[in-house]
Amino acid sequence: MALRFGLFGTGHWAAQTHAVGLAGHPGARLVGVWGRDPAKAEVLAARHGAAAYREVDALLDDVDAVAVAVPPDVQAPIAVRAAEAGRHLLLDKPLAVTLDDADRIVAAAQRRQVASVVFFTSRFNPGMVEFLARSADGARSADSAGPTGGVWHGARGALFAAISEPGNPYGASPWRHTYGGLWDIGPHVLSIVLPVLGPVADVAAMDGPAGGLHLLLRHTGGAVSSLSLNLDGPPAAKTFDVTFFGEPGIVPVPHRDVTVVQAFHAAVDALVGQVAEGRPGHPCDVRFGREVVAVLAAAQAARTQRRTVVVAG
Predict the structure, then answer these.
(1) Could you tell me whether strands 51-53 and 28-34 are parallel, antiparallel, or unpaired per DSSP bridges?
(2) β-bridge partners, 250
(3) Are 133 and 249 in the same domain?
């Protein structure tokens, strides 16, 4: 039997990725849509033969799982309510914008033993999954081997977007402009670096030109990674490049090899599989989402306080 989903969100990402992905997945059934704008919820729900809901709890009552595509400060309380109602969680990155909110989600999910997946897009691309499996096999510290033998010393990553470029569907997104590249695109890079180099011990940060942000991360195993982020940079500078380096050489990660809807299908597969097996637990579950938030929060503190900040355990 298909898992009954409620979709929370009506924006571009919710409509073009979550709704399309759920409607086209054989293991899922889109039951209803809730949005902060009821008129948009009506339109999106009608497009996929679902019902529009005015109340969060009313939709939770009618589903087995939720897919959430709203700003992270809105997502956090919905995720807690859903988990406390025993609903499985398919959430978006970042999990939250405060560590306290992230902890509340994790606590609720663990208390009710619900399955959870946080949709870090790159982590659901087959090429990336295979790359990380090889690279992270025993490579949780600087003394461990990379995919071709030898140890990793660190990583460098650059994700430069141009959100204000004409035609960008996220250009009018208030939360992205409020929280910036650290919280919007930083999770994408961290979701790749952390599985290979392990948890982050402390972070330093420095602002750059044109809204850029540069992070230096020391991992608990001794490796060091440097990440450069820009959400609203010049279109000519757009890039997404993550490279690991060390004794195995210089090894770039593969580029995306599927569409975002196909990646979302893989995330739905992961959640449905956990539910079917009755065994919550996935590499991108809410606990990993919380680990990413802890690094982002430390980076934000390092940026504002102009000092190196220890990541909360």
Answers:
(1) parallel
(2) 245
(3) yes
Domain containing 141 equals: 126-255
Q: Are 183 and 97 in contact (CB under 8 A)?
A: yes
Token pair for 228:
């450069």
Per-run averaged pLDDT (10 residues), the chain, 313 residues: 96 98 96 98 98 98 98 98 98 98 98 97 96 71 49 96 95 94 97 97 96 96 97 95 94 93 97 92 97 98 97 92
Same domain, 235 and 267: no
Alpha carbons within 13 A on the beta-carbon side of 43: 11
The length of the chain is: 313
Cα(47)–Cα(26) distance, integer angstroms: 18
Interval 235-286: pLDDT, tens: 999 999 999 999 989 999 998 889 999 999 999 999 999 999 988 889 999 9
Judge whether 172 lies within some domain: yes
In a domain, 300, yes or no: no
* Neighbouring-strand partners of residue 251: 244
Report the CATH number that the domain containing residue 34 is assigned in CATH. 3.40.50.720
Establish if 306 belongs to a structural domain.
no
Regarding whether 137 and 81 lie in a shared domain, the answer is: no
Could you tell me if residue 240 is inside a domain? yes
3-state SS class at 44:
helix
Q: CA dihedral in degrees (197, 154, 185, 291; nearest 10)?
A: 30
